[in-house]
Amino acid sequence: MKPKSTFRKITINRLAVPLIALGMATGSVMPAWATIDNTVTVTGSSPGNTDDVTASDTENVDVQDAAPVLTVTKVATFGAGPATADGTTDNVAAGTVITYTYTVTNSGNVGVTNVSLSDDHNTDADGSLGTITLGALTDNGGGSSDDAADNDYDYLGPGDMVTWTATYTVTVGDIAAQSADADGNLDNTVTASAGYTNSSGSPATVTGTASEEVDLEDANPSLQVAKAADDTTDVTVGQLITYTYTVTNNGNVPINNISLSDAHGGSGTAPSPDADGATLTDNSGGQSTNSTTGDGKWDVLAPGDVLTMTATYTVTQADVDAQ
Fold first, then answer.
1. Tens of pLDDT, residues 214-269
2. Of 168, 186, 215, which closes a domain?
3. Is 255 found in the same domain as 287?
């Protein structure tokens, strides 16, 4: 009778298995556009090491294709300044502080690196957008990380999202410029960019965009003028009357080339107010200018600013006789 062959047992990873030589089962996780290839090899020998046997098998697991996607949103809200009664994006006035909140979500299935933002806001604005500042991460398990060294986000994992903010103060120039715009809006688009490794193993870029428009109030050019005499009662022949003229820009856009003419009813030489020599009451912070002198005009009067000037008239005998 042949002796029975027996195998002793040992425990590997807490599982009882026959005492045979096991080959290493290896696999490497390749980038998401490849497969996971696994080959297992088993080797065994009978008692006396006279009858070695081996066997192997390979299994390939397909992995979904890499699909890098950035989803971007941009939302405008209002802080200091006149804004609008209901806080919407309609009819926003000069002086309103707009806060833009940008949210970038990694909607793809691969991690992306060095996420950055670029906003074309200033191409449609009179002023300059403030610094786009990196904000908080919403961690949905994507393993995102950042060293906070700059305003880029270092690694944004799938499903995670991160925010940035920037502010802009609407200017009088915006209101004036938008009056000639096709839609009267402050239009702008933000682009998010990030890097990843493509199917050939080379660096590549994925982008996403979002637009926001703020409807500015319509341009309303308007001037208010007042005239006052220093004496209006029982003036006499030869008396010098001083008229004070006050011109106010009570609209919402700058007014250019302001001049005055006085249709005076006296028989003498009519008063001739000279806007070029007016005194400015500056309520706009230096937005009114008058660089050209000697032309009888004030160059630019900003909203809310006031010009004051005087002119005189000498009462004639004909003025008295006509009463």
1. 888 888 899 999 999 999 999 999 999 999 999 999 999 999 999 999 999 999 99
2. 215
3. yes
pLDDT in tens, 188-222: 899 999 999 988 888 999 999 999 988 888 888 99
Do 203 and 243 have their domain in common?
no
Cα separation, 103 vs 140, in Å, equals: 14
Q: How far is residue 31 from each of residues 58, 98, 172, 294, measured CA to CA in Å?
A: 19, 42, 53, 75
CA atoms within 13 Å, Cβ hemisphere of 247: 27
Mean per-residue pLDDT for 277-283? 95
Predicted TM-score (pTM) of the model is: 0.72
Q: Taking the alpha carbons of 120, 125, 126, 131 in that order, is the dihedral positive or negative?
A: negative
Site of tokens 């397909």? 62
Structure tokens of 196?
């990843």
Domain span at residue 247 reads: 223-321
Question: Which tokens go with 140?
Answer: 């949905």
Q: In the block, which residue shows the tokens 């604005």?
A: 125
Contact 34, 112 (CB under 8 A): no
Residue 82 reports pLDDT greater than 70: no
| Burial state string for 73-102 with b = 16 or more CB within 10 A and e = fewer than 16 | ebebebeeeebeeeeebeebbbebebebeb
Expressed in angstroms, the distance from the first to the final Cα of the chain is 156
Q: Which amino acid, one-letter code, is at 309?
A: M
Does some domain include residue 177?
yes
